Amino acid sequence: MPEGAAPLLALFSDFGASGPYVGQVLAAWAGLAPAAPRVDLFSAAPPFDVEAGAHLLFAYTRRLPPGSVVEAVVDPGVGGPRGVLAVLADGLWFCGPDNGLLAVAAGRARGCRVWRVDWRPQSLSATFHGRDLFAPVAAHLALHGAPPAPAEEISPAAMERGGVADPAERVILADPYGNLVTGIPAAGAAETARLAIAGRLLPRARRFGEVNPGEAFWYENADGLAEAAVNRGSAAALLGVSVGAAARLIRD
Amino acid sequence: MPEGAAPLLALFSDFGASGPYVGQVLAAWAGLAPAAPRVDLFSAAPPFDVEAGAHLLFAYTRRLPPGSVVEAVVDPGVGGPRGVLAVLADGLWFCGPDNGLLAVAAGRARGCRVWRVDWRPQSLSATFHGRDLFAPVAAHLALHGAPPAPAEEISPAAMERGGVADPAERVILADPYGNLVTGIPAAGAAETARLAIAGRLLPRARRFGEVNPGEAFWYENADGLAEAAVNRGSAAALLGVSVGAAARLIRD
Amino acid sequence: MPEGAAPLLALFSDFGASGPYVGQVLAAWAGLAPAAPRVDLFSAAPPFDVEAGAHLLFAYTRRLPPGSVVEAVVDPGVGGPRGVLAVLADGLWFCGPDNGLLAVAAGRARGCRVWRVDWRPQSLSATFHGRDLFAPVAAHLALHGAPPAPAEEISPAAMERGGVADPAERVILADPYGNLVTGIPAAGAAETARLAIAGRLLPRARRFGEVNPGEAFWYENADGLAEAAVNRGSAAALLGVSVGAAARLIRD
């Protein structure tokens, strides 16, 4: 980032774009770290789906400005005994619940350090840690480049995996166009590779205009994942499947 | 707020998160008060529902940074004779229509001053006062700490109530998870208190993980309101009700 | 804009308000031009509908602060041979695909200059030019007041029209209230003018409160377009039509 600029604070969550939770996190940041730019990176991750969130989180943070701080919240165990993590992975900070959500970002990093954060705010609701706990941890990371004390560095191997598979051979997001994003990295797949999904074998294309309107195909999306799509149409509607549907990449 | 920082400008409205209105208000602020941080706090309040808006507005502004300025717009009478208010309540500024929307925030404040704002912009559409009238009033409050002239301080008792009840014994929001927020403050309710809603009596829990997946309960949400929820599910779907449904808290 | 302030960066797109694309564009800007204010102006334009986008883009940029830079993306031909434009129209910068999307903003401007931008980033996905190509072009315009090299000034007449009609005698947006925005400028229409839509002839009103709840009418919206609406109701639901439905303004 340019010298002197504050790191970007980015929110990733399953809060829902239309709900009242995103705005409260951004407002909390404005109070805690007013000089840091803020962005709702993505808050329509599939609700309660930690595995989908883990892969989407990795995908959507590949191009963030170096030094950015990402608050990640898909947290069905909020208020329970699950821990709180701060992870420094390839120059990006992540903070979130210790439930597998950070497992892909940490697991794929060339360099990764992990802290268990035991700091807690004076006032903590049982159900909105995104605002009350993770937001101040993220703001602290942006301001100080380290987690708030008390925090203890732990081995990345000690993180919870939460059953998160990598790759995730299924649909992890239906985007607003009806495109079906899978948790399968597409790098290295042949031009003839096919995506098995919804009982069909989709051919590969590089871009939407290569196939006829209404036709289904798969492509390597802008974040490196295999994605089923329909030119000027909805793959979710055409194929009749959505988040959770099995998908497999037949690579050659 | 930190010395020298401009106050946060926060939007609360029923404009709809996906509509073209939120962006235009934020863009207007960027032109009028470029140094002030801006946030869409919440813009999916139930359309035209002043009572629901009044309670949600209070709830979602409890944790704003001191000195923040909130533009609040649920305004079915836009373009008609209803007045324009600026309210200073417990260190937060609110501006919006004089139709009851600010009644809960003002009525519950320990200290409250109210101005009727007679200032009007040179160019004023009949239907988008959020951009053309309230946005410049809010920017003026952020820049100058006082409403634009002409404005006259009035008694809080002279504000329109618009039929807004407090508490509001009904559902005032179905959030993106399907949780049902009521307009009933939960403070002081016993651990054995039950929420009567949709013909059922829901038991209390402190957090989602305390009940089985698919089970309905109520809890005091992070903003102090009684809320019906289902662990890893949708209370709106399970109970078959939404905004407007009657709810009553049986406190002991 | 105030002296020394950076121009506003505004996004207009069909990315969908709940999708993962808006946040990535805003995050890219935060890295490239951290001092420039950023706003998602509107990202729920009808998918793939260049004509609707062209009219909505014009409408929603009329009040932007002078000098603002607008990234406009409705781009079904992404990754194909379509060109990239930077347009300076009446003091606003626009960048986007050369497919007709900028045709209304350019065509109605009192003064207009157009550049074909041949600059390309080192790393360019085939499908997300909003983040990888248009975002850095927009950031460059905000920082330098000129398109990145290589770029060649061309005649406005050389822009693609893409079949975009002006006016567009049809519905170009159903907003979150169910209001039906047409691509027909309403300036100069008589008080007795009627809007022909869905087999009905709607009378004119100036504001919602002038008609009974549940009653349909048309009005000149805050952006100058003819719009069908229902007081405290949804015109889309009442009339049973949506984006694409024919509409005609009978002006006297």
Can you tell me about this structure?
The structure is a homotrimer of 252-residue chains. With 252 residues, chain A is of the alpha+beta class. Chain A folds into 2 domains: 9-158, Rossmann fold (3-Layer(aba) Sandwich), CATH 3.40.50; 168-250, Beta Barrel (Elongation Factor Tu (Ef-tu), domain 3), CATH 2.40.30. The first copy, chain A, is 19% helix and 29% strand. Chain A is built from 5 helices and 14 strands. Chain A has helices at residues 21-32, 50-60, 103-107, 129-144, 235-239, and strands at 9-13, 38-42, 69-73, 84-89, 92-97, 112-117, 151-154, 168-174, 180-185, 194-197, 200-202, 216-220, 225-230, 247-250. In chain A, strands 2-1-3-5-4-6-7 form a 7-stranded mixed beta sheet, sandwiched between helices. Chain A has a 4-stranded antiparallel beta sheet with strand order 8-9-13-12. A 3-stranded antiparallel beta sheet of chain A has the order 11-10-14, with no helix packed on it. The model of chain A has no long low-confidence stretch (mean pLDDT 95). At the A-B interface, helix 1 of A face strand 2 of B.
